[in-house]
Amino acid sequence: MENNIEFYSTVKKRFALPESEGRNKVCSLKEAVKKYIKPRMALHITQTGVRWPTAAIFEIARQFWGTKPEFSLIGISMNHPQAVLVHGGLVKKIITTYCGDPYFTPAPNGVYQRAYSNNQIEIENWTILTLPLRLKAAAMGLPMAITKSIIGSSMAEENKGAFLVGEDPFGSGEKIGIMAALYPDLSIVHGWVADCYGNTIILPPLAENTYGAMASKNGAIVTVEKIVDTDYIRKNAHLVALPGDYVRCVCEVPFGAHPAGLTNIGLPDFPAYAEDYEFVNEARLAAKSPEDFDKWVNKWVLSFQNHEAYLKKLGPEKILALKGKSHSDAWSYDFSFSLEDTTSKPYTPLEMALVAGARKLKEKIKAKNYYTILAGAGIANLSAWLGYYGLKNEGGEVALMAEVGLYGYSP
Fold first, then answer.
1. Per-residue confidence at 407, pLDDT binned at 50, 70, 90?
2. Core-most of 251, 334, 347, 405, by most CB within 10 Å?
3. Nearest 10 degrees: CA dihedral of 352, 353, 354, 355?
């Protein structure tokens, strides 16, 4: 018996896993940008859902402001954080699917409009499907990706340098789209948590996923809310979307996505925070004129030495409020708005368009026995929601999808 205890004790000690594994890649955000980001790089800005690596983008702005680094930016969406780089004249080209702001409603951003109109930047436009496919091909070491999308469109014409149409080599006679793989130089990622080696947890929806980070020639700079030990990563290994092998360095940057938010669905011990809609809207309004955006950039980016100073300016009251708003029932305690009785007022043309769209959706779904609705942003989304509830009330089986990777959700 004594020998058994000694044997088990020896085995346990021999095969015990260390708390932390792998080379320590931890550094400050300031150091990461200074060391790894160079002029004329093609920088991929990872976006999982509407979540930005804002702190990293602002640090790039601080370090390169007043220079001409001629960056290329790659990502499925370019919003006000990236607009800071464009406004500062730091960007030569953008490869994306959308330039604008998401809140309160999807809207153009004046910075991109002016820069494009004045020929200050080149914009290469793809779809939310085709851009990630190009990055995925690069991540897999393939020279190309194939798609049925964009064949016959103006987008295919505009992107002839990276897109062509060919025939199925297996003899079906079907036309296929062939896209060149897309290799960024470096990727910028904001995750929930990571260990010191860079194994990074990112929660769904994943949107374009982490293909850009895996495709990047020089790996990824990862910022996270908290650096944890490897034992925590092991216990939540199913949530690791970016293995540390792809990570160049990892920086602990609390609230590093703000004004984007991070949920804790699937990781209940994570301190989530909500999107700061007011902050985004303030930036959107400021972007309408160069002078106003100058003031906004000076106030929220250039006046700080680091991210810690940014958080101090944001203030504990705002930070705590955003943490509170992240709870699923937070809406039921928001008494800051009042409902107006509109029953006696005539409907507006916009409201009628929404209703007509929902009716048409219901009609088409019933006729074709469709099971899914891919709901686009803005008015299309509202029509899809209304049609969805109408079908459900009639006993229909249908699921809503959204472009960022949501499936089967109920608004």
1. confident
2. 251
3. 50
E strand or H helix that includes residue 130: helix 130-139
Residue 21 inside a domain? The answer is: no
Q: Which of 252, 273, 297 is the last residue of a domain?
A: 252
What are the φ and ψ backbone dihedral angles of 7, each rounded to 5 degrees? -65, -50
- 218 and 110 both lie in a single domain: yes
Q: Domain limits at 114?
A: 29-143+181-252
| Residue 52 forms part of a structural domain | yes
Domain assignment present for residue 396? The answer is yes
Round to whole Å and give the CA distance between 48 and 332: 27
Residue 340: pLDDT over 80: no
Same domain, 234 and 383: no
**Residue among 167, 170, 176 at smallest CA distance from 130:** 176
With H, G, I as helix, E, B as strand and everything else as coil, classify residue 384.
Answer: helix
CA distance 352 to 333: 31
How far lies 315's CA from each of 67, 260, 311, 318, 322, in Å?
31, 16, 6, 6, 11
CB atoms closer than 10 angstroms to residue 370: 14
Q: Residue 297 falls within a domain, yes or no? A: no
Instruction: Give the integer Cα–Cα distance in Å for 148 and 174.
Output: 10
Domain count along the chain: 2
What does the pLDDT read at residue 338?
A: 64
pLDDT in tens, 254-289: 999 999 999 999 999 999 999 999 999 999 999 999
| Residue reference for tokens 């990872």 | 46
Please check the confidence at residue 15 and state whether its pLDDT lies above 60.
no
Judged against a pLDDT cut of 90, whether residue 224 lies above it is answered with: yes
Element (H, E) at 214: helix 211-215
Decide which of 237, 252, 267 is a domain's last residue: 252
Q: CATH number of the domain that 112 lies in?
A: 3.40.1080.10
CB 148: neighbour CB atoms within 10 A? 10
